[in-house]
Amino acid sequence: xxxALGTKVALDVGTVLxxxxxxxxxxxxxxxxxxxxxxxxTQSVPSTALHKRSCQGHNVGRLGGPREADGQQEGPLGxxxxxxSRRTALTSQGIGEPCEENAECQSDCCATSSLNPQKYCTSQxxxxxxxSWQKPNGYAxxxxxxxxxxxxxxxxxxxxxxxxxxxxxxxxxxxxxPNRDYCxxxxxxxxxxxxxxxxxxxARCLPRTGILARCLPP
Length: 218
Description:
Layout: H1 13-19, H2 28-43, H3 47-54, E1 59-61, E2 72-74, E3 79-81, E4 98-99, E5 110-112, E6 119-121, E7 152-154, E8 161-163, E9 194-195, E10 204-205
Antiparallel strand pairs: 1-3, 2-3, 4-6, 5-6, 7-8, 9-10
């Protein structure tokens, strides 16, 4: 008969039973039972042994899903961990556990989840993206990428910027001065029109006039 590893096995029931120290069964039913037990023993090989053999002597690890990382080789039941590997089954973090790099997490996603700079293992999005927590509208910011709206601009006279919702046309516009406010250039005004009423008067934001909405003095 053929064994589990593809080797031919010749079975002499009497010889095997004597070798195991088992008396020869008296009847055919008992003999059939012993034979079935022997077949099960020769056919079954622990899957962990096969996996260890496929890892060729390296440590055997196990994860929730197939992974690849530096110093690892995927096996039938998980991965083989090599010396110097950055991740093993014992160090793979679950969701909500602190981390520093994506490779430390089973989800392969290490990101912030609040204003706290500490990173935690987080689930990826439905599109398999790893996104850090972003500030909602009204929070102080210094860059567009910090905001959910991807828009970090001034919204008052103050030079401080904050996360601001985009317009209906998805434009990210900074706050601009209303009409009659003092200005020094057109870009400071909502109307994009900064003019002096007289030669001596300071420039102010003025509404555009005419059918073509030109920036003309009144």
